[in-house]
Amino acid sequence: MRKKALVILMAAAVFALAGCGDKTDNKDTGKEDKKQEETSAETETPGEAEPEVDMEGPAAETEQISESDGRKLMETAVAFTEDLIAANHDNLVNNYEYEEGDMKTSVENGELEQAISSAAASSGEFKGTKAAWLGDQAGDYTNVQVPCEFADQPWNMFISFAADGKIGGVHTDVYKETP
Fold first, then answer.
1. Which candidate, 7, 25, 41, places its Cα nearest to that of 146?
2. Which residues pair with 129 in a beta bridge?
3. Which region holds residue 142: left if phi is over 0, alpha if psi is between -120 and 50, else beta?
4. DSSP alpha helices (H): ranges in the chain?
């Protein structure tokens, strides 16, 4: 029960802080791919130079984005997730591009960081990330999931990228290592 409440609370807080304005209203974040694949993914050390990415998943299968673009988005998502969990404000503000509006504002004023830090603190010690994967395309957005290992309660970071590569939305999701 505690785990379910934590995931719901984290998702609500991040949606409220990251903004789900007009540009992201068409985003369907409730779909789950029913296909289960076995992949082995080793835990990465936070800050590792080349994050592990999984070119499998719904968006990769539909070939709506190129492999190199998909890999770049997944690498960005892993680095962003690690900076967000570590509450590295300078990197969050300076190393990533955001859509104008609520998303950019919540990063610049630290609200997104604060919400995720709170969720991370209640999840136990951060152990690292696992292989990211491309989720479903939702309109002009490409969704990437990054599994996050914590001592008490793992969860996934769900990041939506606009067609121009800017981060348009962030929330937490139920933990899954593979699509």
1. 41
2. 148
3. beta
4. 2-18, 58-62, 67-85, 89-94, 102-108, 111-123
Nearest CA among 48, 46, 69, 50 for reference residue 59: 69
Reading the block at residue 140, the tokens are 């002009």
CA distance readout (Å), 76 to 73, 91, 177: 5, 12, 18
Alpha carbon distance 45, 89 (integer Å): 20
59-90: buried (b, 16+ CB within 10 Å) or exposed (e) per residue? bbeeeebeeeebbebbbbbbbbbbbbbbeeee
Going by their DSSP bridges, the two strands 155-161 and 141-150 should be labelled as antiparallel
**Whether the predicted model's global pTM rises above the 0.85 cut:** no
Residue pLDDT tens, the chain, 179 long: 444 434 444 444 443 334 433 333 333 433 333 333 333 333 344 444 444 444 455 444 444 678 999 999 999 999 999 999 999 999 999 999 999 999 999 999 999 999 999 999 999 999 999 999 998 888 899 999 999 999 999 999 999 999 999 999 999 999 998 88
